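hey can u check if this looks right to u? its 159 residues, i copy pasted from the old doc so theres a chance i mangled smth
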Amino acid sequence: MRTLKTIEMKIRKATTKDLISIVEMLVEDELGKTREVFQDPLPKEYLTAYKQIENDTNQEIIVVENDNAEIIGTMQLSFIRYLTYCGGLRAQIEAVRIRKDKRGRGIGRMMLDWAVNRAKERNAHLLQLTTDKRRPDSIEFYTKIGFKASHEGLKKHLC
């Protein structure tokens, strides 16, 4: 049995100061390192995208900060209004990342619990996420905490 140091964590909306830590976690990922660019300063496209997301009331980039004020986790939560379900609101989780040296400590579970509560606060009737089929550990984790593989998702890359 392993003993883990209990750390205080704070979940909050990201700021531009957090962007470099967020992109670093995106690049740390096996699939992310093939499509992201981490350098200091960051490519301007990241700041442009961040500002667009920040100005959209239906988008939230979230970070987890530890007791040393280090960013150790991130995710994006999007709220999508659509006509089905009588004009229902759906919440979509994307880009869940935990810093490599902090994985296996319950941070992901805490983030997903937070997302469930945030979706309920916004009166979403459904919370969904997708993960690449090449991430079997992620699929197992999401299934264990109550997400169900109810649909087949298809994608078409346009560039």
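The beta strands are 10-13, 59-65, 71-81, 89-98, 126-129.
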